[in-house]
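Q: Could you fold this chain for me?
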Amino acid sequence: MYRVLFDITFFFFVIVILLAIIQGLIIDAFGELRGQLEQVKEDMESQCFICGIGKDYFDKIPHGFDTHVLKEHDLANYLFFLMYLIDKPETDYTGQETYVFQHYQKRSWNFFPVGDCFRKQYENEIMPG
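A: Sure. Below is the predicted structure, expressed as structure tokens.
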């Protein structure tokens, strides 16, 4: 009788402890994923995905960062261009399209203007004095 009671109590506690450990691991994993998602959101709101220049640089002009991200470096335009290149016959490519497509095939993103944009190139003409 005592042996049965001991076995039942032992298995009950072992199962409860193991379930608590497994639940803890699951909760911790989801917490880490949530943290990574928040970091990505913060990065997307504070710097341009294409060029990587921070929001502080563009907000010298009102709505500068929003205009830059939505019009100058719209991620959708880059994706549409890559899809256009994938669908277009390679024999019809221009020199620039060949350059971009070769980098795309190598999974090299060197054709992205990292650290550069038109506003930065023409900074003296855009920014007053």
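A (continued): The two ends are 93 Å apart (CA to CA).
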